[in-house]
């Protein structure tokens, strides 16, 4: 008698089994049983090694188990399948953060925030990576501001001729050209002005050269972002020179840097 051929699962059956394994692992994740969850995700990926949902979910599971390198690998594999997958972008940013690659992590958090500005997770990611960079290489958003001691000394040396006789306080000096430009930028770019100033300060820091030895050129991405924001600022200056930008969601999406 002829031997029976082994049963071959159809694509629909494979997808159903993958979903079943992922759903079971999701329940284990809720119960904080991460080792059990990992087993289910592994079984799902044995059926289809490029299933994006399973890859992203396992990436998150790896992070919770403290295995950031494996989490990064799964996130990158998912992005190879879909470069715009928002969950994969977030997982890569998180994995890079926990690996201490803060500059690259910042770029991916910015990319996610640009694609989905309504998600607070990306905005919080930007904030925490900026703080991490400041703690490691000393970049401060307000490094152009004079220190308290210098400002106090300057006030003490103010000539009496510049003192207002009625209030006995120094007369405010006229804002400089740089200060006026900064005020206009805040009006035109809104919250994005903070990101622009941060990236400009980051580009000035000599330790950024060390970060550029990684797989991606951080300086190039940062420069593209600054150039993009400068173009948007000029665009809104021409459109509404006297009004502030009401919401960053109104920014046109054309001519965006490739890392967004």
Automatic annotation (TrEMBL):
Its main location: cytoplasm. Residues 134-177 are annotated as: Disordered. The keyword Cytoplasm applies. Residues 134-149, 156-168 have a biased composition (Polar residues). The keyword tRNA-binding does not apply. Keywords: Cell projection, Cytoplasm, Cytoskeleton, Repeat, TPR repeat. It is found in: Cytoplasm, Cytoskeleton, Cilium axoneme. This is Outer dynein arm-docking complex subunit 4. It comes from the Eukaryota. Gene3D superfamilies: Tetratricopeptide repeat domain.
């Amino acid at each position: 008698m002829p031997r029976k051929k082994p049963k071959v699962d159809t694509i629909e059956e494979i997808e159903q089994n993958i979903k079943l394994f992922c759903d079971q692992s999701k329940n284990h994740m809720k119960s904080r049983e991460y080792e059990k969850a990992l087993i289910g995700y592994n079984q799902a990926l044995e059926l289809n090694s490029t299933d994006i949902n399973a890859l992203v979910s396992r990436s998150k599971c790896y992070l919770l188990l403290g295995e950031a390198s494996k989490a990064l690998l799964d996130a990158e594999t998912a992005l190879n399948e879909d470069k715009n997958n928002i969950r994969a972008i977030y997982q890569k940013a998180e994995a890079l953060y926990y690996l201490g690659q803060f500059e690259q992590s910042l770029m991916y958090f910015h990319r996610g925030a640009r694609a989905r500005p309504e998600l607070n997770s990306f905005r919080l990611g930007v904030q925490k990576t900026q703080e991490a960079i400041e703690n490691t290489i000393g970049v401060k958003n307000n490094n152009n501001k004079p220190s308290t001691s210098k400002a106090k000394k300057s006030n003490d040396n103010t000539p009496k001729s510049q003192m207002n006789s009625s209030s006995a306080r120094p007369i405010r000096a006229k804002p400089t050209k740089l200060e006026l430009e900064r005020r206009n930028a805040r009006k035109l770019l809104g919250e994005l002005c903070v990101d622009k100033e941060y990236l400009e300060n980051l580009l000035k820091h000599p330790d950024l050269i060390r970060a550029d030895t990684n797989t991606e050129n951080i300086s190039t991405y940062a420069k593209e972002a600054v150039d993009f924001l400068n173009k948007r600022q000029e665009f809104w200056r021409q459109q509404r020179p006297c009004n502030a930008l009401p919401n960053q969601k109104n920014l046109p999406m054309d001519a965006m840097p490739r890392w967004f």
